[in-house]
Design goal:
Blueprint lengths: L2 H19 L12 E10 L6 E7 L10 E2 L2 E3 L15 H7 L8 H19 L1 E3 L1 E2 L11 H6 L2 E2 L6 E7 L8 E9 L3 E4 L10 E8 H4 L6 H15 L9 E6 L2 E6 L1
Length: 254
């Protein structure tokens, strides 16, 4: 085993220790986690990769003032949105693992939820300039049609999954995706601001972003992204899955 391999194993073990060290209120009734998706935009054009983070409003009851990636729950309309390209087969396969009633359509909806939530929270439309062969669903997706943008799922990478522990007031089965900043096809201004869900957006180098005030799982996924970039950023890389079993967080690979 090389020193690099030893360092990586220790780093991965440290991820799990950090997740277990977080002080959590687990006294609430156990509820089923909601399917959710998060997208990490990464700019690798310079010497140091940068990621896009948003600061949540301090008036929010859920994670006030924290820096997060755009994301949220899956919407029924996400299944119906046409796309320019399908998911990479490796990503689709891993998205369907350990997934109740898994199907390619539900896997695709997860990636599309990440794209839609990114638009709703940042004003960024991700994809290719193209017209849809059929009308998109109503709501946020209509903006994609208006600006002639179709989501390009082939270039979206599935890089992590984490389930909120049992006993939390809100629970999510969150899938973390990443895509290169070159996927930004259009921008609508004025989405973030003092009265919005995200009051500001910042592009930050990975090393600096890790020092921000953020949820534990966000910091862990930044570390996972850092390692993934070092390993070549390929679709064929295994995907970490964090979940709590009998009171302890475990890290498995999909």
């Amino acid at each position: 085993m090389t020193d690099i391999d030893s360092d990586r194993i220790e780093r991965l073990n440290d991820f799990v220790r950090r997740m277990n060290a977080v002080d959590r209120d687990l006294s609430h009734k156990v509820i089923r986690p909601r399917d959710a998706a998060t997208l990490i935009l990464v700019d690798r054009s310079g010497r140091v990769p940068k990621v896009l983070l948003g600061k949540r409003h301090t008036r929010h009851k859920f994670m006030p003032g924290k820096f997060v990636f755009p994301g949220g729950g899956v919407d029924p309309t996400d299944k119906a949105m046409p796309v320019a390209t399908p998911l990479d087969p490796q990503s689709e396969m891993r998205l369907m693992q350990r997934f109740h009633k898994a199907s390619p359509l539900r896997a695709r909806a997860l990636a599309l939820a990440a794209v839609r939530e990114t638009f709703e929270e940042t004003g960024l439309l991700l994809g290719q300039r193209a017209e849809a062969a059929k009308p998109p669903p109503a709501g946020a997706w209509s903006e994609f049609a208006r600006h002639k943008v179709l989501p390009d799922l082939r270039n979206i990478h599935f890089i992590g999954r984490a389930i909120t522990p049992p006993g939390r007031l809100r629970r999510f089965d969150a899938r973390f995706f990443t895509v290169d900043a070159g996927a930004i096809a259009h921008r609508i201004d004025g989405v973030t601001g003092p009265d919005a869900e995200l009051v500001e957006l910042v592009w930050m180098p990975l090393t600096e972003a890790k020092q921000l005030d953020m949820p534990a799982v966000t910091g862990v996924m930044l570390e996972e992204l850092d390692g993934r970039i070092a390993d070549g950023f390929g679709h064929d890389l295994p995907v970490p899955f964090y979940r709590m079993i009998r009171g302890s967080f475990l890290r498995e690979l999909l």
